[in-house]
Design goal:
globular, 241 residues, single chain, transport, Glycerol uptake facilitator protein, MIP family channel protein
């Protein structure tokens, strides 16, 4: 007797009655989020992970960095993930040059170009500003603020992509790919800062065997990922209007 091949489906939201055309605010917010993701991932990787720890007198102390290939990988992953998560809403430009080029080619309305460019500039500046705040620390000596910020932002990005990729407008069967690559891109930025939690359960499990210092810091790796996840849920609700 033939046996059925059982495949666990990717959980998705049921389709909702709504216009097939995304709202103008949805499109602009998607461009802000996507451009933030792109800039945060590539600039953060270049700043914290390209060469880590830093060099001393021209000699690499410990060549654990991802190098130029890693930075390029972070950019490619960010663009792909952004296209999965936000492309169905805004088209996934994340770049003023792309919006202008599409408009010249007749593939994008000129009336939308100024709004898209403004949204992209806002998202890019927000991403760069986040990295700037994180860079106030140094490898091995980052502040609590840096750890809090990277946990909130990286977890928020991850949960946002999960919500978008598994939504009715999302990536469908390709959602696990988008989610996995998002986690990769976020780890490229966050591991050098605080070893990257993004998951309170993982942090709790490892802290149990890490001793008193680890347990004393555990609260931060529970609270800040939760804050990021809640913020992601709020953003997702905004994109469902």
């Amino acid at each position: 007797m033939a046996t059925a091949h059982i495949v666990a489906p990717v959980p998705t939201e049921p389709p909702r009655a709504r216009s097939t055309e995304p709202h103008a605010i949805d499109r602009l917010l998607a461009e802000v989020c996507g451009t933030f993701l792109l800039v945060f991932a590539v600039v953060g990787t270049a700043t914290f992970s390209a060469v880590f720890p830093a060099t001393a007198e021209g000699a690499v102390i410990n060549p654990l960095g991802v190098g130029l290939v890693g930075v390029a990988l972070a950019l490619g992953l960010a663009v792909m993930v952004g296209a999965f998560a936000f492309g169905p809403i805004s088209g996934g430009h994340f770049n003023p040059a792309v919006s202008l080029g599409l408009a010249v080619a007749g593939r994008f309305e000129w009336s939308r170009v100024p709004g898209y460019v403004a949204a992209q500039v806002i998202g890019a500046c927000a991403g760069a500003s986040t990295v700037f705040v994180l860079a106030a620390g140094s490898p091995g000596a980052f502040s609590l603020l840096a750890a809090a910020l990277v946990e909130v932002v990286a977890t928020g990005v991850l949960v946002t992509v999960i919500l978008r990729a598994t939504s009715a407008r999302g990536a469908g069967p390709l959602a696990p790919i988008a989610i996995g690559f998002t986690l990769t891109a976020m780890l490229l930025v966050s591991i050098p800062i605080d070893n990257a939690s993004l998951n309170p359960a993982r942090s709790l499990a490892t802290a149990l065997y890490g001793g008193g210092d680890w347990l004393a810091q555990l609260w931060a790796f529970v609270v800040f990922p939760v804050v990021g996840a809640v913020a992601a849920g709020a953003i997702h609700r905004l994109l469902r209007r």
